[in-house]
Amino acid sequence: MNSISAFSMIATVCMFAMLAGAAEPHDVNQPYSAERSNPVVWDGELVVTVTAPYKTKRLRVWIPIPPSDDVQEVQRSELSTFPVDVKPQINIEPEFDNRFAYFEFPDPLGAQIIRHRLTVKTHELQWKIDPAKVSASTDWPNDFQPYLRSEGQAVVFDDQFQALFRDVVPNRRGPLLDLDTVLSWADANLTYDHGNASLKASSTHAAALRRGHCSDYHGFCAAMGRVMSLPTRVTYGINPFPKASPSHCKLETFLPPYGWVSFDVSETQKLTKLIRADKALGSTEQDSLVDAAHTRLISGFRDNTWFLQTRGTDYELVPKASQKVAVVRTIYAEADGKPLPDPDPSNPSETQFAWMTAHRFDPDVPVKYPFAETSSLQEKN
Q: What CA–CA distance (Å, rounded) separates 199 from 216?
């Protein structure tokens, strides 16, 4: 075979490979396409104290174990209990592949303490999405169905959502621009409220009351995304810096060709309010920073002061619990088959909790929370 024939054969093979690649269906497990920067290694522990009701015969506790993937690396994960030594089972729930440590305490007396020593390396992620490159699709493989459904306890979109979407987005302009309109509507119309939150990523709670937690914001946005036939999921993780509760969630939406993209509406809203309340800033500078915060939001952004624990909503735990869980914020616990209520320590009207967390993590480099100050926005201007 001469060199010209060999070249023609290689070109033909490459052409067919490109065509085959173009015909490939969307991959629900597509690696994150974001640019990674500013790596941080967080080393520390998360401690949970669970107090079951008096004379409980069986206390069951599920604790998520953060995954390693292409943007975060779990370098250490060690579990222990006190005062009773209970060895956990490590299981993977089958729908979203979330990993959990399962503990069972027979006849627990008093508080049971579970310690999770963790070292996690994470990154700042920026997708820098170009709206013109985002393609619309309604032909999603079966693997995407859990992210498109309307059922269960959390992300529900009914006729009310369909009607609200038509009001919010009267003219369709493309997947990202329509999503931008939805996120902007949520920013303008939802109020962050510790006293009136579902703690379950409830889209209907947010739609009806227009108040709630981060999970209500992102459950609502996930439902509106599914109205657009966009796969969406609520992702829960840990803010390792000092907080009343370390749990925090974000929205992820699958936007071809970028794949899964992270958005944080509730924290961007808080940052915008901080900017507007800063009397040291003139109105022009405030406008510029608010625009920068919104651009960062809709371009796809995930901070390095958060690491992922779970993806998805409405799934069965392993071993099976008494019910499906809407989300697992930090732990899920049952006493004799009855769920123990999730605490919200930032709710000033609550003073009694069935379980509580304490955490401390140290970063290997100085790091700032980008939703509590504006220097990261100014650096990008």
A: 7
Helix residue ranges per DSSP H, the chain: 3-23, 159-168, 175-189, 203-209, 214-227, 265-277, 283-299, 375-380
315-358 pLDDT tens trace: 999 999 999 999 999 999 999 999 999 999 998 888 889 999 99
| Rounded-to-10 torsion of CA 293, 297, 299, 304 | 100
Bin 299: left if φ > 0, else alpha if -120 < ψ < 50, else beta.
alpha
Specify whether the CB–CB gap between 149 and 158 falls below 8 A.
Answer: no
Q: Are the C-beta atoms of 372 and 379 separated by less than 8 Å?
A: no
- Please report the pLDDT score of residue 122 as a whole number: 98
- Tokens 């796809």 appear where? 300
CA pair distance 109, 128, nearest whole angstrom: 53
CB contact at 8 A, 68 and 122: no
- Please provide the DSSP assignment of 4-35 as one string: HHHHHHHHHHHHHHHHHHHHPPP-TTPPP-SE
pLDDT in tens, 214-273: 999 999 999 999 999 999 999 999 999 999 999 999 999 999 999 999 999 999 999 999
User: CA–CA distance from 79 to each of 27, 43, 126, 361 (Å)?
Assistant: 33, 14, 32, 16
Question: What does the block give as tokens for 145?
Answer: 């169905």
**DSSP state string for 105-119:** EES--SEEEEEEEEE
Residues of the chain predicted below pLDDT 50: 1-23, 380-381
List the domains of the chain with CATH numbers. Answer: 35-122+313-363 (2.60.40.2250), 124-307 (3.10.620.30)
Task: Give dist(CA 183, CA 250) in Å, integer.
Answer: 12
Cβ contacts of residue 174 below 8 Å, gap of 6+? 131, 132, 134, 136
Neighbouring C-beta atoms of residue 191, cutoff 10 Å = 12
| Dihedrals phi, psi of 187, to nearest 5 degrees | -60, -40
Q: Whose CA is closest to 226, among 160, 169, 179, 173? A: 179
Q: Quick check: 249 and 236 in contact, CB under 8 A? A: yes
